[in-house]
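Supplementary notes for students who missed Thursday's class. We covered one full example, reproduced here. Read the sequence, then the structure, then the short commentary at the end.
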Amino acid sequence: MRALLKHKIAIGAAIGLIVVVLLVVLGRSKAKGTAQAAVQPPEVEVVQVTQKDVPIYSEWIGTLDGMVNAEIKAQVTGYLLSKNYVEGGFVRKGQLLFEIDPRPLQAALDQAKGDLAKAQGQVAQATSQLVQSQAQLAQTEANQGKTQMDVDRFTSLAKEGVIAQQDFDNAVQANLAAKALVKAAAAGVESAKSAIVAARSAVESSRAAVSTAELNLGFTRITSPIDGIAGIAQAQVGNLIQPVNPNSGPLATVSSLDPIKVYFTLSEQEYLKFTKLNPTQLQRDAANQKLQLNLVLADGTIYPHEGKFFVADRGVDEKTGSIRLGGIFPNPGNLLRPGQYGKVRSVTRIQVGALLVPQRAVTELQGSYQIAVVGPDNKIDIRTVKLGERVGSMSIVDEGLKPGESVVVEGMQRIKPGLAVNPKPIPSTED
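Structure (token representation):
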């Protein structure tokens, strides 16, 4: 019995020892697993620094304007009789837009034509008077010639005593009277000529009045001077149109939109930089001709047609320190309209061998920029870098990085200098 009891105690002790050993082993295994989990390096996403030649864009705020903006204004006073176009629609050159009541101006034309006819009648009358005066002058000259012959004949006869002195004196007086009549007739001719000149002047004045009246009558039909889009009418049918009123604006505006202009401003510093790169006018003209403009619309989309440089203003604005430039864009379908805003973008230079990193890899700290670099030993190196231009979603790094190095783009909140990490390469996305 005792032997059996001792055997059971020995078996129980052995089982207890085995349980203790198992607990110790399991505890150590768990502790080892916990320790191993604690030292596992954090996973971060990295991309490699790429190097290539990249175009550098400059952007300016641009305002669109019609190639030609024709303000349609009235040139005569009158009541607006009709509006003959669709507002906001396309109109052709010479198309009727507005009509002013022509009746008062038609009456003025009729009166001017009457005055012209009257003046022409006065010319005819003065011409007839001239003919009569010339005939009278010829007659008086003939009479004076006869009296002069009598004087010449009587002179010798009077000296010889053949005729009485009284007859000679009468002949002299008759000749003097004939000469006076000749002078009077000549004055009548000159007077008739002057009357003709005055009458002809009146005719020319009347003709001018008729031309003016015809022109004013034509101004009652207001047509478009260009092909383009006609704006909303600023006057309504029945309004009294008074062009002499300084407060009267245009009746409407017609703009030619294909091509369309875009104006943007260049800073004085940018202009000086451009002139240094192109010191001669010939070089500047060549550079301008090569300049290709892109237009970013207000919704962020890029206009599908490229534009070209058009004009530079004559001087720099003293208030803003900038110079105004203009570009031209094709505008089929009149998609673009005057007054729209957009960003004018153009390649101004090519940066050779630029180092590119995603912008999300860059952190800013107190005015300086830092990038986390994963070294060959998978440890973090926080570097202060010098950034250049932005190219889409990428940034150019001028100083602080080398081509092919790995930079952290995701998981930066879990890293610090010298920390070992588990880098996970991802493809770089470049816009």
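Commentary. The longest strand covers residues 50-72. Helices lie at 2-38, 103-160, 165-218, 268-277, 281-290. If anything here is unclear, bring it to office hours.
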